[in-house]
Amino acid sequence: MIASGSRVLAAVVLVALLTACATSPTGRTQLQFMPDAQMRSMGVAAYREMKDAGPILEDGPQVAQVGCVAEAIIPQVPDEYARDGWAVTVFDSDQVNAFALPGGKIGVYTGLLAVTDNADQLAAVIAHEIAHVMAEHANERMSTEMATAIGLGALQVAAGDDPQRQRALAVLGVGAQVGIILPFSRTHESEADEIGLGLMADAGFDPRASVALWQNMADAGGNAPPGFLSTHPSGETRIADLRAELPAAIYRYEQARAAGRRPDCPS
User: Could you confirm whether 140 is annotated as catalytic?
Assistant: First the structure.
């Protein structure tokens, strides 16, 4: 019966792949069920709730720095990703974090600003987060979890009340989490690094700062989970991948500077 259930799962995933395929900016095939309008609406609603929960900073040097960096990057982002324009908020929190949401909403936590040494490093983070929106990773993540849930639901029905089958289903559930959902997250992070590196370079920020940023992050991160169980690539993997992308990004940076894109943001 479990083998039959596995065939059901395979059929569900196959149908999903055939009916909901999309392509990311790097050319990677994606699974996307959710309408763009719904993703934007969800992003705007989540952003509003986070702002209401606060606290946020309205002005000051940190707000000025974040605003300057974001304003330099945003013109390099196609209009389709924020049809109503972008909004940027600085959250007064020790979290070393930032985000960008569908619908053009960006949040930066003050804890992150304690780790970034200059505007170029901050640009690496903001460009990385915007890259998640450009690659529609939120849609892909939700769609992947939905397909997994549908498949596991079919197996639940197939397993019935048999304890041995239920134990096998539990093992399969762990396999789905480690083998399907987490690898997609690591893929998203690596892809956002690649897209974000080019985006910050196009805005006139030095892409070499991304390597120093993630070295800072590694120093601030303390003990991290093993790479294969993490939703982010390991620090060493991330830095090596960034270094491999630097020659192309530096060329784009030099082109941007030659075109007059030289952001003068406070550090």
Answer: no
